[in-house]
Amino acid sequence: MLGVIGGVGPWVTQELYRMINSEVRADGRGRGADLHVANLPIDLAVEQRVLTGRQSPADEQHLVAGLSRCLGALERIGCDAVAMPCNSLQPYLDAALRQVPLPNISPAAAAAAAVRRRGFEEVLLISTRTTLQMRLYHDQLPAVRVRECPEELARSMVDYSVRGGEDDAGVLGSDAETIARLARAVAEQMEGRPGAVLLGCTDLGMFLEPLQALGVPVIDSLTEQTGACAEFAR
């Protein structure tokens, strides 16, 4: 039985749930995935500080305590592993897992495995500031050159994805126009470079197909986590 910790990005939690069930049902066994969701009721101000790398020690303690409660609830109902569709909170989940030791199907580990499987020697990482500060993907991919996406571009993509198309200055643009413009900006970063774009924020899946349409190889952390979760849940 798989436990999912949701609430940090409620929309991406729904998407992970949908995608896991879609993959499991597609195998023809006539059933959905055996999974349960525990919601982390994170304060929106704390969430914003985490996404921008401005979290305080009190925020970190709050997150570890909340994640520990979620893990305890999932363990009590019999879950054998856990997945959380959020890269930025993985270090805090790791800390909570020391108290409730369940296997963790993390988006970073799944995406890193895909990078190695496809033989990429370089990636352009697009993620939150916190994921960069924690060196989540640098540590997962020691033999791969991890280039960091220009901060302004990465922030615009994360803001658009997480906050429904708004940043501090207001609406970035209409959906199709903004997604296409940001995808083109990423493609320009890849011109003449080897490797792939690594979407290291699970909310960035909306850029997967537009980037692929521009001929850019892409590794999406949510897609890879979904595949690993579906394999476990079968």
TrEMBL record:
<protein>
    <submittedName>
        <fullName>Aspartate/glutamate racemase family protein</fullName>
    </submittedName>
</protein>
<dbReference type="InterPro" id="IPR001920">
    <property type="entry name" value="Asp/Glu_race"/>
</dbReference>
<dbReference type="GO" id="GO:0047661">
    <property type="term" value="F:amino-acid racemase activity"/>
</dbReference>
<keyword id="KW-0413">Isomerase</keyword>
<dbReference type="InterPro" id="IPR015942">
    <property type="entry name" value="Asp/Glu/hydantoin_racemase"/>
</dbReference>
<dbReference type="Pfam" id="PF01177">
    <property type="entry name" value="Asp_Glu_race"/>
</dbReference>
